[in-house]
Structure formats: C-alpha cells, structure tokens
Amino acid sequence: MYIGEIITADCANGVGLRVSLFVSGCTNHCKGCFQPQTWDFEYGQPYTQETEDYIIEELSKDYYNGLTILGGEPFEPSNQIEVVKLIRRVRKELPGRDIWMYTGFKYDKDLIPGGCRYIECTDEILDNIDILVDGKFVEELRNLMLNFRGSENQRIIDMKATRKSGSVVLSPLNT
User: Fold this and answer.
1) Burial of 51 (0-12, 13-18, 19+ CB in 10 A)
2) 48 contacts 85 by C-beta, under 8 angstroms
3) What is the tens place of the pLDDT at every residue in 38-87?
4) What does the H/E/C string look like for 77-137?
5) Mean pLDDT of 137-155
6) Are 174 and 157 in contact (CB under 8 A)?
7) What SS3 state is found at 151?
8) Is the peptide bond prior to 72 cis by the omega test (within 30 degrees of 0)?
9) Rounded-to-integer distance, Cα 103 and Cα 148, Å
10) Residues with Cβ < 8 Å from 147, sequence gap 6 or more?
11) Is 102's pLDDT higher than 90?
12) N or C terminus: fewer CB in 10 A for the chain?
C-alpha cells in the first residue's frame, strides 16, 4: 500500500482533532474528486512499519479524538490488507480513540459478502470502526453545507449501531 499524505491535527475529516491517513489507489475516479492524484496506487510513499509507528505515536497524544482513514480508497482490496492491521493496532494500543473511514463504495451493496469490494478482512474492518462515510462523490450533488461529506448522496453511518442491528443506522451527524 502507498499513502498520499498523513495530516495531523485535522478537524475536517471527523469529529474532534484527528490523525488522517490518505491511502493511495482508487478505481472510482469520481468527477470533481478533491484528490485525483490519489487514484494512482503508487502515489506518494510506501506504507511501512515506520509509517504505522508514527501514526500510533502521534495518535497517542492526549488531544486526539481518533483516526480517519480515507484516500484514495481504503476499501480497494490491496489497501484493506494493510488497513486492517492498522485498525487492529489502534484498537489494541489506543482503545479510547475512535476510527472513521471514508469510501466511495456503498456499505450495504459493495462491502457485504458477494459485494465488489468484500474480501476476507472486510468484516473485521467494519466491526472495528465507529463511523463509515459511504458513497461516491457526485459533483452535481455537491453541498458545502454538509457535515463531513461532499455530496448529498453520501451517508455518515454509525457502524456500531449498524453492525448490532443488521441494517444501516445513520449517525445524527447526517443532519
């Protein structure tokens, strides 16, 4: 996996102060994407053990609320293999931090068994994140007044409630 950027002290990609990891590689190619350079699976730098250690060290500072993983596309199969390892480590070493993920894919279509981005570790990822912002960015539905998303079709999903109930539960942040 490659990463395009790590942003520390980020407040745009989730509630509170966050460490945001932008992974590289995306097959969605949304018109109007704010980071089209991250479509390239080899954009930026390779994700290494040192990268992961840096993220954990930074995230361990008292003032962070959590980690946000976005891209590019974290749910591209090659990215999920590394993303799940980072999520495991955050849950083990920093259980008080929340985890947000952004995807251009639909939770209840593409990330379920038989879906186009479902692989052996997808359920583990989904079981261990707090918020999933799903859906492609649609330029014609762009709305700068929305919380934590760029277009009106995108949803902010409460993953703990969703996994417990078996159907999509939207976060109150959708309003």
Assistant:
1) middle
2) no
3) 999 999 999 999 999 999 999 999 999 999 999 999 999 999 999 999 99
4) HHHHHHHHHHHHHHHHHCCCCEEEEECCCCHHHHCCCCCCCCCCCHHHHHHCCCEEEECCC
5) 93
6) no
7) strand
8) yes
9) 12
10) 156, 173, 174, 175
11) yes
12) C
Cα separation of 153 and 28, whole Å? Answer: 15
Per the structure block, which two tokens stand in for 112? 């379920």
Residue type, 175: T
Mean pLDDT of the 152-156 span: 96
Q: Which residue type, as a one-letter code, is found at position 84? A: V
At 59, which helix (H) or strand (E)?
Answer: helix 49-59
Q: Which neighbouring-strand residues pair with 6?
A: 21
Structure tokens at 149: 């998303």
State which amino acid sits at residue 146. Answer: L
pLDDT of residue 45: 97
Please compute the mean of the pLDDT values over residues 149-173 and round it to a whole number. Answer: 96
Summarised one tens digit per residue, pLDDT across range 5-21 is 999 999 999 999 999 99
